[in-house]
Amino acid sequence: MAVEGLVNLRSSFGPKETTERLKAELQASGLTVFAQIDHAAGAAGVGLELRPTEVVVFGNAKGGTPLMQASQTAGIDLPLKALIWQDAAGDTWLSYNDPAWIAQRHGVTDRTKTVTANMSTMLGAVAKAVTSPAA
């Protein structure tokens, strides 16, 4: 399942535990969790079925503002989001937009290399901590 700009990691945990681990890791990393959206609950509310599918919206002004200073349209992709979802085989996944892809989408790749590299490193570390069992 390759989608341009999307990073996907298989989680060693179920959807609920992955979501809770993500929120805890984001907060421990100094990021703000702004919202949590449970798409499966929304579907159930209108009589439809959907495997576990949740979005966590998070970020901080220090990381996102430089992208928006370079191109205010980057605000459509910020704050950052992570999708926790379960596939048909029962595997749980954590997906997020690659910050470099966001910069490329808004035409500011050259002006935001350091910022996007830092964001990518941070997101990669958070995602690995969330999806991998402790050593």
Automatic annotation (TrEMBL):
Residue runs in coiled coils: none
Transmembrane segments: none
Segment forming the signal sequence: none
InterPro entries found in the cross-reference section: DUF302, TT1751-like_sf
A Pfam match: DUF302
Domain named DUF302: residues: 37-99
Lineage top rank: taxon: Bacteria
Family matches, as PANTHER family: INNER MEMBRANE OR EXPORTED (PTHR38342:SF2), SLR5037 PROTEIN (PTHR38342)
Stated name of the protein: DUF302 domain-containing protein
